[in-house]
Amino acid sequence: MSLDEFKAACHSLSTDGPALIAAAADQDAWASVRNMLVGRTSGRLSSIMATLAKLPPDTRREAGQLANTVKVELERLLDEKQIALAAAAPSAVAFDRSMPARATWRGSLHPVTIVIDEIAAIFRELGFTIALGPEAESEWYNFTALNFPADHPAMELHDTLYLEGGGLLRTHTSPVQVRTLQKYAPPVRILAPGNVYRRDFFDATHSPMFAQIEGLAVDEGINFADLKATLTHFAHRFYGATRRTRFRPSFFPFTEPSAEMDVEVDLGDGRGLRWVEIMGCGLVHPAVLTGAGVDSERYTGWAFGMGPARIAQSRYGIPDCRVLFDSDVRFLGQFAV
């Protein structure tokens, strides 16, 4: 084949192709025309391209450019025709305007997450920052560094979930306090939210896994009055400025003195306001400060710990904590905002 014959074949294809494409009345006809024009095996363009190797070497470049120009133009016309046919095709599914619309699904935060976020926002205004730590802990961080005696009941197998090869699932977020004091020099003010694990039965008031949020403040001259003032401010912000609070003596190995904090709460059961315990607290034991590398003669501090799940139950009138783990959208949808 000569170059002139090659050009003639290309011209014929560029002339016939647009007319054939325009005449395609539906998708089946379009597909047939496409295979006939630019199909890889039996298309007219493929047949022309197969003769390219028979041309004189010095004419192949020009011939190849011409064939490629024809190919680009045909493919453009084919794409435009396919779009036009698709737009003109009737819908396969009739639209029934009498059908009711489907309800829109709307995601929301879990009630415990809502409580944690609100608590964090209140303490953030007081200069506290969020600190996190591992859920799989060593016995030293979980117990020893927090002044637990070696024979403390909490260290028994019936209370704590131990891991093979050493370690355990943390029973509180207090190890985060020790890790923070080891990493940063006072003054320190942190809030430590996270999940904790205990070998408890799953019933209306207990769960083997639950959320906890703890706070720690360490600085020079901190005393119990600072603790009471800060936590009372939190209670008034969270529950209302008119709610009364009270502190009852208690005991924790890692604080001395220690207290339980109660707040007057209306649980929505028709019994009005009554005292509800919301957290434990106290001044950080000097042994804890010393074990974390802090000078207990110079610095003092206070700490607290609360369960956001129980606070959520008291706030929203939830009688059984198990519904917080059920992932029931009928329940969780009530908190969508």
Describe this entry's structure for a reader.
This protein is of the alpha+beta class. The protein folds into two domains: 3-88, no CATH class; 111-335, BirA Bifunctional Protein, domain 2, CATH 3.30.930.10. It is 39% helix and 20% strand. The protein has helices at residues 3-23, 27-38, 44-50, 60-88, 111-124, 139-142, 174-183, 224-239, 286-291, 308-316, 329-332, and strands spanning 129-130, 136-137, 168-169, 188-197, 209-219, 245-252, 255-266, 273-284, 300-306. Helix 2 (27-38) packs antiparallel against helix 4 (60-88). The longest helix is centred in the first third of the chain and has 29 residues, at 60-88. It starts with a helix and ends in a 5-residue tail after the last helix. The model has no long low-confidence stretch (mean pLDDT 87).
| CATH class descriptor of the largest domain | Alpha Beta
Biggest sheet statistics: 7 strands, mixed
Distance between the termini: 76 Å
Count of domain modules = 2
List the helices and strands in order: HHHHHEEHEHEEHEEEHEHH
Say which CATH homologous superfamily of the largest domain is assigned: Bira Bifunctional Protein, Domain 2
CATH-scheme architecture of the largest domain: 2-Layer Sandwich
Give the percentage of residues in beta strands: 15-25%
- Helix and strand content put the structural class at alpha+beta
Query: With helices defined by DSSP (H or I, 4 residues minimum), what is the helix count?
Result: 11
Summed over residues and divided by their number, the pLDDT gives a mean of 87
Low-pLDDT sequence parts = none
Shape descriptor reads elongated
Helix content: 25-40%
- Radius of gyration, in Å, reads 37 Å
Strand order, sheet with most strands: 1-4-5-9-8-7-6
